[in-house]
């Protein structure tokens, strides 16, 4: 159970950041909180995804967390997209921030997918072509969710 605490923090953090924005507005607190979250939660989780391989996590467990993280982040991505669409031309100045914010959420969950894919390939549950295609998909919005759900469900069924 203690092994799952970093992933749970990774699930909760975007919603805490959203709560800060909701309460404070887009003030100086938001970039500081985002930077702190990146340093203390997002970056360590990116390394932790690969440490779990050495701690005995199976490819199913890693791909489950990959899928769960990506599915739980869909509302955040949707809100960022909606904000960009509603702001229209006025979103251009903050476009870089929105892209960085989205990728700061995408990359930690992607690392769980990569480590699960590498483990699945290591134990010969997927082919090289599947590995390459899904690694590419893990780095693209929308395709990453499709890839994570497909991988988890297909490897869960296999014995």
Write down the Rg.
17 Å
Q: What does the main sheet amount to?
A: none
Succession of helices and strands: HHHHHHH
Overall mean pLDDT: 91
Number of domains: 1
Specify the overall morphology.
Answer: globular
> How many separate helices?
7
Query: Ends: how far apart?
Result: 24 Å
State the helicity in percent bands.
over 70%
Poorly predicted tracts of residues: none
Give structural notes:
By secondary structure, the protein is mainly α. It has one domain. It contains seven helices and no strands. The radius of gyration is 17 Å and the shape is globular. The relative contact order is 0.13. The mean pLDDT is 91.
Main attributes of the structure:
159 residues, mainly alpha, 7 helices, 81% helix, 0% strand, globular
């Amino acid at each position: 159970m203690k092994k799952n605490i970093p992933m749970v923090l990774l699930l909760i953090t975007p919603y805490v950041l959203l709560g800060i924005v909701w309460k404070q507005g887009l003030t100086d607190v938001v970039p500081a909180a985002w930077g702190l979250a990146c340093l203390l939660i997002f970056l360590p989780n990116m390394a932790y995804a690969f440490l779990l391989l050495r701690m005995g996590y199976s490819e199913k467990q890693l791909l489950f967390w990959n899928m769960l993280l990506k599915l739980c982040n869909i509302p955040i991505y949707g809100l960022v997209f909606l904000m960009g669409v509603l702001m229209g031309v006025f979103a251009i100045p903050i476009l870089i921030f929105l892209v960085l914010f989205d990728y700061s959420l995408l990359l930690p969950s992607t690392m769980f997918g990569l480590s699960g894919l590498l483990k699945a390939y290591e134990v010969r549950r997927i082919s090289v072509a599947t590995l390459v295609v899904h690694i590419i998909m893990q780095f693209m919005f929308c395709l990453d969710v499709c890839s994570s759900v497909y991988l988890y469900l297909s490897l869960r069924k296999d014995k």
